[in-house]
Amino acid sequence: MNSIEVQNLTKKFGNFTAVDNVSFSVKQGEIFGFLGANGAGKSTTIRMLTGILEPTSGDALVGGYSVMNQPDKVKTQIGYMSQKFSLYNDLTVEENIRFFAGVYGLAGMKYEERKKWALKVANLEGKEKLLTGSLPGGIKQRLALGTAVIHEPKIVFLDEPTSGVDPISRRNFWDLINDLSAEGITVLVTTHYLEEAEFCNDIILINAGRLIAHGNPKELKTNYLKNTILEIESDKVVESMEILEKVDWVGETSIFGNYIHIILKDNTKSDADVREILTNSNGIEVYRVDKIVPTLEDVFIHLLEKDKINAS
Amino acid sequence: MLHRIYAIAKKEFRQLKRDKRLLFVIFLFPVMLLVMFGYAVNFDVKHVKIAIYDQEKSSLSRDFINSLLQSEYFDLVDMVTSEGEINKYLDEKLAQCVIVIPNDLSEKLYSNREVKIQYLIDGVDGNTANIISNYANLATITFSQKFSGEILAVKGVKQYKPIKLDPQFWFNPELKTSKFLVPGLIAMILIVTAVISVALSLVKEKERGTIEQINVSPLSSLELILGKSLPFVLIALINAGIILIASYFLFGSEVKGSLLLLFLTTLVFLIASTSLGIFISIVSDSQQVAFTFATFISLLPSFILSGFIFPIDSMPVAVQIITNISPVKFFLKILRAIMLRGVGIEAYWDQLIYLGIFITVLLVLGTIINKRKSQSA
Question: Can you give the pTM of this predicted structure?
């Protein structure tokens, strides 16, 4: 069963098309990654899916309700946590929980039960009276997620939930997302961190408002990037890249710390050809050349470059 | 719907408890305004400092001087002893008025000739100068009448005054400025606190991004606005009560009319003020802008254009039309009617309709702008 069904969703602001004819579907209980650069149309799409922004054309069913015709119904089905902290810093932990519970009409036993749950999620049991503003970022984020799903929605939108949080907290946060998914809650998450995208069951990538890739992480790596990728370590990283960029059988090049990745246009070429160019012709010492499985980053850089060429 | 409004109102009270700036605006601002306007803004001119240059020093001139000093309007600072000193008193602001009594006062008066007594008034503050001149004039006329009466009595003729003016000041018999100012003061304090607090509390959600969380919740904008305004309307009503009690003790102003009508019309006015606050919150994106905007738009027109201090009837027609942007103008008419005249709703129902129009226009305009803003990138 699909929790979210997006059909030809389009949003125009005057002459500018922010979201261009996007279609995809999200299965119930799945962790769905929504990727794209800043300004690619991620936020606009999420605003339409949460019933805040009316689409110019197309439609989406969220929890069975149309965002075009029943945005108010959609709002009862979803939880939402935004990139900015969506908690009130000048309220205590308990007051925040109470407010959001009140907005969704939780009371009595149900409220007590959910409050306990949210406090447990955020590791804040016994600290209900602390001011939210005084909490560390990671804890605040967990509390924000706890309050975002206080009313037990079937679908939850997380808009860059882990930006500005340390790696350990990020890891813990993803455990929490996995727990939600295990309970059958559909999680749609946008993120900048491509290593996080690996945790998703399904991913879409959008660029300039258009959907340019869709699939699970494994599919993306195999279907969208069939070319060989070589990882090269040498004594002159930047120089090596500049030289390889000019070679006609080399596609995209990118630096990853002190080594570079190159995508080959011609899969018959191998490490010997690279060494030939760098060492024999230019005198650069090459430590190693390995054929690697592409990371999502390689795939996305490749896709974005391709999209740029297609667009121009 | 009610539980959601209640949830917001409760949250608002909790946040207010921790918001020092807003607490200051709501509770200290009224006290400041009340004291400032109640005491400092005073158009009653009393205890004018005068100096007298008595060139004659006769019993008649002393009589004249005494008659001037009998009232509380004039306080004698000093007797001037030479012509050259007169300038000094005015230049150095030792006196606001110097009276010069000529040395032929008795001689002329007893020979039935007219005498001129010179009043030199500091004209820098035109309003005060005018009032001083009136007082002096009145005092002199009284003295002249008394004197001519005595002369005529000596000749055996009874003095006869053809017309005597008998002014009676209704509603504010002592013509006390503070009594006249209190209704305006109440209106001003209410609008300033209501507009600023509602605008700030709404913009705060926008500025901190918490509005997003509310937008995706099932809360409607009506519920949000009601929940947000309710606490501040309640506080403003309490404030209004406190001001009424305080001005009773400080300035002796009473409410002559119905307290129930006063309460109901105040509520209508507060809804108008709240709409203005909501409108400001829609067009501004930061608390800084909202605060400046709210202070400016609630304070200035209420002060200048409402008839609080400057009578609207004496303004140019174009300005008279502009005065309609201030809801204080309408409420002030209602307040003065209830508090000073003690009349019923028949005297000001039209003002209530104007307030209703004001509320409708602002809310409709605000809804349109808000819709446009929320659907933009």
Answer: 0.77
